[in-house]
Amino acid sequence: MSVAxxxxxxxxxxxxxxxxxxxxxxDFALRGWAVTASTRDDQGRVYAAVSHDVYxxxxxxxxxxxxxxxxxxxxxYKPGEKGNxxxxxxxxxxxxxxxxxxxxxxxxxxxxxxxxxxxxxxxxSEAGLFASRDRGKSWEPVEGFNNHxxxxxxxxxxxxxxxxxxxxxxxNPNRMWVGVSSSGFFRTEDSxxxxxxxxxxxxxxxxxxxxxxxxxxxxxxxxxxxxxxGVYMSEDGGDSWQKIEDGLPVSExxxxxxxxxxxxxxxxxxxGSVFVVPLEGDNFRTPRDGNLAxxxxxxxxxxxxxxxxxxENSFEGVLRGAMAADQMDPGGIYIGTTSGRIFGSRDTGDxxxxxxxxxxxxxxxxxxxx
Amino acid sequence: MSxxxxxxxxxxxxxxxxxxxxAEGHSVAEVMADLSRQHPLIGRHVYDEDGHIxxxxxxxxxxxxVRAGEAAGHAVDDGDEIVMTNALSGG
Lengths: 370, 91
Known about the structure:
The structure holds 2 protein chains of 2 kinds.
Chain A: E1 3-9, E2 12-18, E3 25-29, E4 34-40, E5 46-51, E6 58-62, E7 69-70, H1 85-91, E8 109-116, E9 119-125, E10 128-132, E11 140-141, H2 143-146, E12 162-169, E13 172-181, E14 184-188, E15 196-197, E16 210-215, E17 223-227, E18 230-234, E19 242-243, E20 251-252, E21 258-259, E22 261-268, E23 273-279, H3 281-284, E24 294-298, E25 303-306, E26 323-325, E27 333-336, E28 342-345, E29 353-356, E30 362-369
Antiparallel strand pairs in A: 1-2, 1-30, 2-3, 4-5, 5-6, 6-7, 8-9, 9-10, 10-11, 12-13, 13-14, 14-15, 16-17, 17-18, 18-19, 20-21, 22-23, 23-24, 24-25, 26-27, 27-28, 28-29
Chain B: E1 2-6, E2 20-24, H1 28-38, H2 40-46, E3 57-61, E4 64-67, E5 81-86
Parallel strand pairs in B: 1-5
Antiparallel strand pairs in B: 1-2, 3-4, 3-5
């Protein structure tokens, strides 16, 4: 088996391929587009979400990771829908003529793609969820989420109001979860008709800033959550959360909370290992003392720093979507940095090697076993 | 009116690498609407959800800058050329 990495950057996608996870070939595709997410369906087709400040978002598909074609459709809100005024102010820097003064609800970025139960899902900014049941030819809004009763109270984060995390239950197609920055983590039990905020135990009444959540879809109710205010675990599908920071470095946030700040969180499903990349607080957002480290936990029971092969004197971060696990045995873990470097581990995090460098800022990383 | 539209390099993956497309219309807005009818994938990048030309696209018509909101009122003649480009560029 070989592994292909789709590395989404601010200026295109690096496609890395390897038969042994030691030596990698590298191509660069989708030049000029910010590649914000990718996923693969059950027939092996890979979908890449792209966006551009001027020309907007779209989705491309490839059956071989060499040839890409833009899909006929992409998620879009209905004309006339009202958007979030704060989000528009963050995103519409090019609106010289005041066209967006009435705050239209627009899809300006696709934060995540997820395939499950024959459906391709897209989480977008301004925050919303869309579904396609025909491999991206057409998209339907998930109205129960997009017009959630609490939507008027949703607050954008530093990167706007984005739905960036989608999780599904392999055993129950009616159940799924969506994370929104910075408005919380929601669960549906009725195929998206109704959604309930699932943040009990996480600090903050509204505006919980979930950064990323991971799980094993075959044991879906056990969730691991990197929140703005620390790292949490739930064993009941998100009904309750407990802080799990034993062994993690903590730092002070701008509002005084002391916790382990970071963005991505991924799981090696075979071993149950969970990985995070702590950064020094929300004011700095760089590895503490310039020591980039991935921390590993076995099912949330204590964390250990994995530094072998990772750079010292390095102040590059790892963004929300820029860590992935290939789910092989032993597990391969990959991180992409804001300085355009890719580090990979072939031993579930014990040791790391730089496998690509000189790329634009890395936004997303996905690993596909071929 | 038949007008040539100079395409931005980023969108030429949708034109087979062709730099200039031809479309019909009496204004910049009509020309872009016709171009988007001919090539719906291009249209997805020209218009937002509300059917407006995306606010960060601008046009150059005979050296005159035409912003997205001015496209409907800016007349073109047969044989003219429109350059479609970014409102924000430079360095």
